């Protein structure tokens, strides 16, 4: 049968792939804006997987974000948290939008919904892969440059501390205060995730900090350096965040695993995602102590919600990451990745991937194309 890790989502623990049926419970949180549309396509892909392989998925939907606030008066209902805690993994759509921007801070979808979910589930490590598909490389802002060859990097971002959660924190008419704080065990925990994943990739970690001026970064560098001694096969180098931002443009192919803090990771992972030409292509994963969450890296795009033009690839590839990391089936995750690549190679493009002069397919049609090629693998 599929061999599970002692705790779901521990990097480096892969199932043996024997062909016995296994059922996984997934909390599905469609979210706001285009979230429900692209989620539908990801679930369609999982259905194809379950028909062709000895795995099955039990899904249950929950409310989060602006949609939850409109229905229940809170962006994170207790029922949603309960659903997440009793599931094997969480598949989340994008949340938020201008409609809810004027709510009190604790009721906004991004803060009272997503950040509170991360905090409640102890999600501490965010993974943002960037792989440039050859068939759409012309969409990258660096398309004309030779440096784009071989871009395949992963940002491992600490998710549970830093200025997003540090205290004191307050805002009044004269002052806004956020506290940047790290404790050694938090840095060591995220470092281990990065080193473990690097062992499955190209065995190189670039730790990004600002240790020339920030005390929290001085601690960061010290702990990362110490943790690296447990992984003698991994090459570690350190880089200041301003230089890292520049190097992502000058030579992105030099990076394998980027390890960094919450604030710096928030910025750098979006910058690196732009290398692929569209956030609609970018999946992500958030690891917790007991459960992992998978979501697109982009926003809810309320301006195109309901129009059938959203790109479902980020949501589909988030489901592929779920299969690899939480369900220990990297073979099935790779099958989805290959189906996405084939769809792109055959010329299927949603509007964000398509120059204005060309025709494009709908969200539904892109999902169908991926399913069709998945059936032929």
Plain-language structure description:
This protein has 377 residues and is of the alpha/beta class. The chain has two domains: 1-123 and 278-377, Isopropylmalate Dehydrogenase (3-Layer(aba) Sandwich), CATH 3.40.718; 141-276, 3-Layer(aba) Sandwich (Isopropylmalate Dehydrogenase). The protein has eleven helices and twelve strands. The protein has helices at 35-52, 65-72, 78-85, 109-120, 184-200, 215-228, 241-250, 262-273, 313-325, 330-345, 363-375, and strands at residues 22-29, 55-61, 89-92, 123-131, 152-158, 170-171, 176-177, 204-209, 235-240, 257-260, 283-288, 293-296. The chain has a ten-stranded mixed beta sheet, sandwiched between helices. Strands 6-7 form a two-stranded antiparallel sheet. Helix 1 (35-52) packs parallel to helix 11 (363-375), helix 9 packs antiparallel against helix 10 (330-345) and helix 10 (330-345) crosses helix 11. Residues 1-18 have low confidence and may be disordered.
Index terms:
alpha/beta, Isopropylmalate Dehydrogenase, single chain, disordered N terminus, 12 strands, 377 residues, 2 domains
Write the layout of secondary structure elements.
Layout: E1 22-29, H1 35-52, E2 55-61, H2 65-72, H3 78-85, E3 89-92, H4 109-120, E4 123-131, E5 152-158, E6 170-171, E7 176-177, H5 184-200, E8 204-209, H6 215-228, E9 235-240, H7 241-250, E10 257-260, H8 262-273, E11 283-288, E12 293-296, H9 313-325, H10 330-345, H11 363-375
Parallel strand pairs: 1-2, 1-3, 3-12, 5-10, 8-9, 8-10
Antiparallel strand pairs: 4-5, 4-11, 6-7, 11-12
């Amino acid at each position: 049968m599929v061999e599970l890790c002692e705790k779901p989502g521990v990097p480096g623990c892969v199932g043996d792939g024997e062909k016995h049926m296994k059922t996984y419970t997934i909390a599905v949180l469609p979210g706001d804006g285009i979230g429900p549309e692209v989620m539908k396509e990801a679930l369609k892909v999982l259905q194809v997987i379950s028909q062709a392989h000895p795995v099955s998925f039990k899904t249950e939907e929950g409310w989060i974000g602006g949609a939850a606030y409109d229905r229940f008066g809170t962006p994170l209902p207790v029922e949603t948290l309960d659903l997440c805690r009793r599931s094997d993994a969480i598949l989340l759509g994008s949340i938020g939008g201008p409609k809810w921007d004027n709510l009190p801070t604790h009721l906004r979808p991004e803060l009272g919904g997503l950040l509170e979910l991360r905090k409640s589930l102890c999600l501490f490590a965010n993974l943002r892969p960037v792989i440039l598909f050859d068939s759409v490389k012309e969409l990258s802002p660096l398309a004309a440059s030779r440096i784009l060859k071989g871009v395949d990097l992963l940002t491992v971002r600490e998710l549970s501390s830093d200025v997003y959660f540090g205290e004191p924190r307050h805002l009044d008419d004269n002052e806004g205060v956020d506290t940047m704080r790290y404790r050694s065990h938090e840095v060591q925990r995220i470092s281990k995730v990065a080193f473990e994943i690097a062992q499955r990739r190209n065995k190189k970690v670039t730790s990004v900090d600002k240790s020339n001026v920030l005390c929290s970064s001085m601690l960061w560098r010290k702990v990362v350096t110490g943790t690296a001694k447990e992984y003698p096969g991994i090459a570690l180098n350190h880089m200041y965040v301003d230089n890292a931002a520049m190097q992502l443009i000058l030579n992105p192919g030099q990076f394998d695993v980027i390890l960094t803090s919450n604030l710096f990771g928030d910025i750098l992972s979006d910058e690196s995602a732009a290398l692929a030409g569209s956030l609609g292509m970018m999946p992500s994963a958030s690891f917790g102590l007991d459960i992992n969450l998978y979501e697109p890296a982009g926003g809810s795009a309320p301006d195109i919600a309901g129009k059938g033009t959203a790109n479902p690839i980020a949501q589909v590839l988030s489901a592929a990451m779920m299969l690899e990391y939480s369900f220990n089936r990297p073979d099935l995750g790779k099958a989805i990745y290959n189906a996405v690549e084939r769809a792109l190679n055959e010329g299927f493009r949603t509007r964000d991937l398509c120059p204005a002069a060309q025709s494009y397919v709908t969200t539904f049609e892109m999902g169908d194309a991926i399913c069709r090629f998945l059936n032929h693998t």
